[in-house]
Amino acid sequence: MSDHPTTPSAEPAIGRASGFALVSPDEPGGGGFESALARNRAFAAAGEHEGAVVFPNLRLFVITCLDPRVDPAHFLGLDLSDAMVVRNVGGRVTPEVINNVAFIAQIAETVLPDGPLFEVAVIHHTQCGAGALADDTFRGRYAERIGAEESALRDQAVVDPAATVAIDVDRLRSAPGIPARVEVSGHVYDVVSGRVDTVLRAQPAQI
Ligand SMILES: [Zn+2]
Question: Which CATH code is given to the segment(s) 54-204?
Answer without folding.
Answer: 3.40.1050.10
